[in-house]
Amino acid sequence: MKEVVDFLRRLKENNNREWFNAHKAEYRRADSTFKEFAAALIDGISSFDGSVGGLTLADCTYRIYRDTRFSPDKSPYKTHMGVFVAPHGKKAGYAGYYFHLDPNEGSMMYAGLYMPEPIVLRSVREEIIDNGDGLVAAIKATNGFSLCTDNALKRNPKDFPAGHKYDELLRLKDFGIEKGVSERLLLSDRLLKQTLDDFKSTYPLVSALNRAVQYAYEEMM
Hints:
The protein has helices at residues 2-13, 17-22, 24-46, 57-60, 118-140, 167-170, 183-186, 191-220; strands spanning 81-85, 96-101, 107-113, 146-147, 175-181. It is α+β, with helices and mostly antiparallel strands. The chain has one domain: BirA Bifunctional Protein, domain 2, CATH 3.30.930. A five-stranded antiparallel beta sheet has the order 1-2-3-5-4. Helix 1 (2-13) packs across helix 3 and helix 5 (118-140) runs antiparallel to helix 8 (191-220).
């Protein structure tokens, strides 16, 4: 991963089309290295979570080009790379496993749901009411992941009165857990194995969330 880390650091300092076009060959090598890792990650995750079997790189990875139409930041390129492994691909709205490589702001692993549709979020909140103990136990059983609470309401959502044992979970608008990835691990031969071991520990939580997602989608049919 060293060439990926090095390229993304240089891109951070030179985020313009002229520099990128002059270093297109370096980008292609970095992109190829990351996609080789991503393909192995998809394959490894499918060995313990059969719901992601058959996914391709196109289903799970992202373009480096930024959509700047509605952003005050007009930098044309992302300075990170990511792969999201979830049932039916990255755009299907299911919980999954996200690996984020960013030597500039920090790399991490994330497991769960990000920005779910309102009907899905309601289904997850109903799952919390019914099975909050199980969800908390699943989080505690992971390899050092912690609950993401950045994007949360200050009060309980409508139809979920305050005073429940798991008010903190009910106030979440995303439902995910995360764990930092050190540069030492990024550059080591253990990266793939450690990442798979860590994501495997999150499978019970991801599976429980996807039951709630599936229930919501069935309600919409």
